[in-house]
Design brief:
Layout: E1 9-14, H1 22-36, E2 40-43, H2 63-74, E3 77-85, E4 88-89, H3 91-98, H4 102-105, E5 109-115, H5 123-134, E6 138-146, H6 162-183
Parallel strand pairs: 1-2, 1-3, 3-5, 5-6
Antiparallel strand pairs: 3-4
Helix pairs in contact: 1-6
The site of flavin mononucleotide (FMN) has 14 residues, from helix 1 and strand 3.
């Protein structure tokens, strides 16, 4: 990681292919809050640059994988936002994490978001927490679950629920401030 006077870079990883999705929107909202605190942000676009499944033919030489890993190396922190699928993170999110090793992520901060069609649950958040720990990430205690996702956003894309908005603000603050602390 670079000089403390340089802005930190926060990378968003979406568990939905399309960034025009609830998780793409949650990443935008979270990264805007990080930017308000002085961070630079980037998002990997799975729709334009899909990652092959780990182990698929040709995957070890795949240019999208190289680009994804280079973006991860350049980042100081990560935000993971995944839909809950059958009680856990989506395959897109798991495969994205499978392409990251501790050489890309060790000692870096992770913030976690999940969206649910149904009631709030910590399963997906806990599963992503374990995976991030496995690649030596420091996961913030703050985390955000967005239940009843079909009713979670206003027409302008802002969050309906004030308590979720305040969780987003707290998590962005934790990501940025803890990343700066770890970079010292
Ligand atoms: C295969 C599949 C499994 C799902 N499983 C769950 C689930 O276990 N719990 C839940 O609350 N919602 C479940 N959902 C609803 C998704 O969580 C919801 O559609 C998603 O959070 C919306 O985010 P997106 O717009 O980024 O796709 C499931 C949806 C799909 C397609």
């Amino acid at each position: 990681m670079g000089d403390v006077s340089e802005p930190i870079v926060v990378m968003g990883i979406c568990g939905s292919y399309d960034l025009d999705s609830a998780n793409g929107r949650m990443l935008e909202i979270m990264l805007e809050e990080c930017e308000a605190l002085g961070a630079e942000t980037v998002i990997w676009d799975h729709g334009s640059y899909p990652l092959p499944l780990v182990g698929a033919e040709g995957c070890w030489e795949d240019e999208n994988v190289k680009g994804f890993q280079e973006m991860a190396i350049s980042a100081d922190a990560f935000v993971l936002s995944s839909p809950e699928y059958h009680g856990t993170m989506s395959g897109v999110m798991k495969n994205s994490l499978d392409w990251l090793y501790s050489k890309h992520t060790s000692g870096k901060v992770f913030g976690l978001i999940c969206t649910l069609g149904g009631q709030s649950s910590n399963n997906t958040l806990n599963h992503m927490r374990i995976a991030a720990r496995w690649i030596h990430g420091w996961v913030t205690p703050e985390q955000v679950a967005v239940p009843n996702i079909k009713h979670a956003f206003e027409e302008d894309g802002s969050l309906v629920d004030e308590s979720i908005k305040s969780r987003v603000i707290d998590m962005a603050s934790s990501i940025v401030h803890n990343t700066v602390k770890l970079r010292r």
